[in-house]
Amino acid sequence: MPQSKKPGPQAAKAPRESVKILITGGRIQRRIQEIAKQIRKDFPDEPLHLVSVLKGGVFFLTDLARSISGEVSFDFIAVSSYGQNTHSSGQVRLTRDLDSSVEGKTVIVVEDILDTGMTLQYLLRLFEQRKPKHLRVAVLLDKPERRIADVRADYVGFSIPNEFVVGYGLDYAERYRNLRYVGILTLGSDTKKGASEK
Ligand code: IMP
Ligand code: MG
After folding, report:
1. What sign has the CA pseudo-torsion 69, 75, 81, 83?
2. What residues have their beta carbon closer than 5 A to ion ligand 2?
3. Does pLDDT of 197 surpass 80?
4. pTM of this structure
């Protein structure tokens, strides 16, 4: 006989989270079209190899790849730098390498967000050693106020204020990635604290 399920202690402790839209899905899509055109203009005759950082960069990569005309290939890499919260450890670790070599290719690193820049600095050093023909960076979001590492992106979707954002690939403890828009996450009363200490 199945027993009736009562809400466990976890349900009772769930934080009161809410998400306020910062950039609508429509604006994201329009901006991606512009970036795709710009990239093709900068490299009119080259096959382009997009390399995205799992998992946050997947939607940006798939939308961007389909918007760039001509020959495009892509690959994925995974690094870990954040735990299960909004705080950064500042440590970057490779957890999944690329499938194919980037040597001699025109490589565009496709990242969800440029925050402290530690992740991008790590990736650029790694890829430079592998001798691509060109190495460029496209980020959907940039939080310039938070920069620690001396890195910049060649293509930026939107510059945003120092807030913790979710959606369009970006997560909070693996949730919210599937939103079509980017929104500011509010965690009950202490969101700002989480975002600024990160
Ligand atoms: P960085 O190494 O500090 O530049 O951080 C890069 C990574 O941190 C991104 O690829 C995201 O996975 C994560 N991150 C930074 N800021 C946010 C945010 O506001 N929301 C969700 N993830 C973030
Ligand atoms: Mg992430």
Report:
1. positive
2. 56
3. no
4. 0.86
